Amino acid sequence: MARTVLEITGDEEKDAEAREWVEAISSVMAFDGSERADFLLGRAVEMARRQGARLPFAANTAYINTIPPHKEAQHPGDREIENRIRSAIRWNALAMVLRANKASSELGGHIASFQSAATLYDTGFAHFWHAPSAGHGGDLVFFQGHSSPGIYARAFLEGRLTEDQLVHFRQESDGRGLSSYPHPWLMPHFWQFPTVSMGLGPIMAIYQARFLKYLHDRGFADTSNRHVWVFCGDGEMDEPESLGAISLAGREKLDNLIFVINCNLQRLDGPVRGNGKIIQELEGGFRGAGWNVLKVIWGSNWDPLLARDTTGRLRQLMEECNDGQYQDFKSKDGAYIRKNFFGRYPETAALIADWSDEKIWTLTRGGHDPRKVYAAYAAAVAHKDQPTVILAKTVKGYGMGTAGEGQMIAHQQKKMGVDDIKRFRDRFSVKLSDDDLEMLPFIKFAEGSPELSYMRERRAELGGSLPQRRTKTTFKLDAPPLSLFDTQLKGSGEREISTTMVFVQLLTKLLRDKALGHHVVPIVPDESRTFGMEGMFRTFGIYSQVGQLYRPEDAEQLMYYKEDRTGQILEEGITEAGAMASWIAAATSYSSSNVPMVPFFIYYSMFGFQRIGDLAWAAGDMRARGFLIGGTSGRTTLNGEGLQHQDGHSHILSSTIPNCISYDPAFGYELAVIIQHGLKRMLDDQEDVFYYITALNENYVHPPMPDGAEDGIIRGMYLLKSTEPSAAGKPKIQLLGCGALLNEVIAGAALLERDFGIGADVWSVTSFTELRRDALAVERWNMLHPTDTPKVPYVTQCLASRGDAPAVASTDYMKLFADQIRPFVRGPYHVLGTDGFGRSDYRRKLRQHFEVDRHYVAVAALKALADDNKLPSSKVVEAIAKYGIDPDKTDPAYA
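and the corresponding structure tokens:
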């Protein structure tokens, strides 16, 4: 029993009473164990807290393993065979990176990360991670991105990857190689989750685990036996997204979620917490957020030392040393550890007095001990009502010796000298001769060998190989016909409404559709009332695992706030990143759970791609299918909010993601056509695309859909209003507009006709982005087929069909947005846009400030015609004066 230390206060009566309590607890621990002491103290603390006692706060437990040796679940596997398998995987992972960088370090790659985590992965593969099968939906594993060589190395041993693929690690352009990191887009049958953009794996996994509960509670699938495993590094936890949503996991009691944090104490440049203890820091954070924390710090060969630590000095020493010192110890040797660690106190020096330096060096950290890791995994899987985090202490570059073990350079290390390779081979008993090493051959187990048979048996028992990804769902779900939206196709009559209101009408119809409605997932970051969605609360409910444990304040109202265990709406609170992670979980459910869902995430467009752009790229990589609705879009539409709330660039950002299909509709019928077509592509055709559609909060009359407009709406533009040249040969202009400013363009056309007798064709451009993509594809085809009849881009066809008149475009976005089609407009082309910072004012004033309103449309049209020698420049001067425009006003791009 460790010696107890009691602070003396000087008050004999208090000291005696305290001594009795301490001795009583010490006696319980000595005879009944720490678990009994935990129980008794817990009950006493609970009573004291309820009575209002001021209790001392302790975020941390002792710096030892959470699970004592006698409570560990026994490892059921063949440890010797597993060790040989793990050694072969280690070698193949090492060889893969070294071979790729033999000529130069241009390709890159990481050796040290996987070497520190090999046991953590191997234990999961051998004993815990279920593949999808008849009786199990499959566990979801978020692999740490930098450990990809180890996952490839295992798949190679299983026969899932070829030697040629390993040789071409990070050489993918010819279709033969392996992606650098987990990329479902590049390896759609293998990787499930893109995780190397640090911090995204943790936050996506939390919402993925919650979405499995959502599927279960709403009756889509039995997910009660599925777990989400998340592997990340201790340095990665500095990313805000890594810890940003852990309170949600605790609050929602996500006992299907397991974090495994590889605490090798080192990030890219040096120690994670050189002056502190990252394991203790993370323990405090996760415990405070309601997680079950399991620390796996010391390997089994530390157990006898801890058992003999009757003075408590070894535990004290473990607490005193910081992570910078622990990294230093493992970069040296046993003699250095004897002197600088154990030698600090006589009591600890005595513990290893009869040990050799070599034996001291073999003292293992917990994350490298299969027995300790298995016990932690088993405890995590069995734990209920809390998510679990396993803090596993390891050594970065484990086994790399002087080439990088525990050293500052470990993360960037891509090459090793011959001597270090030999030592690595010897340390892990890899059966290769010295002559073999120069070629860095891959190890392959022979058919019928104990190792290969064991690997296959273990994976067969767990349902099959991992990682694996479902590319198509077998769940048949059809898109509804366009006729479902007949009301919106007919326009709003005399009623003025916004496209946001139209969207809510469309969404409500989808939710009520008998076939599709159950699969629709509305997701809102605490903005339902802003977007007019509160009417859905009572009808469809807000999802909550516990239902509603209170009577809402507005219970007497028609549209009261209703939480429900089978609720359909995901109301995520003020977190765009969390809501996006939730959307990704729903948008990839067709793959992860064989249940196609149709998520609609509606949010302020300004807080979309610029705030969660990294997650949007992850969605593209994951082949997500769903709708992002950017509400109150445009620089001048959300007019009262000011600089940071006005979006003039979200469509530029969305255009950078190849499988994000972006539209900026102005009228309800355009929105209806786009959503129905998107549903068809994602459900009927199972295309791996997702849609970004912007919506407005400006009210105006919506006309009925013109005959024949549907195809143009989808392709990106259609003729909304046409005019023919007058008999007198008056000039003509083509005007392009979209979204918030289409009505200004229409009004500009009216000014030109009224004040100058100039006719204008008005084009509604639903997607400048799709027009450009079509044109680029045509341009590429023409370049590669020079002897064939050239194709013509759709935008070029449209404008050319109306003659050679100049074109003017005005949008509520930066000029770059409409300017992207310039190479494909054959005549003169002038662009108006809202470059510059936003500001608050009336819409008409903002549009005047940014020079995009009807008057500037008219002036720009006249200038285009003057430049094209279709009318004199004096007409432009006349218009500037007529419309009260100050030609010397400050450029809004710099105002």
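(Above: one complete record from the training split.) The two ends are 74 Å apart (CA to CA).
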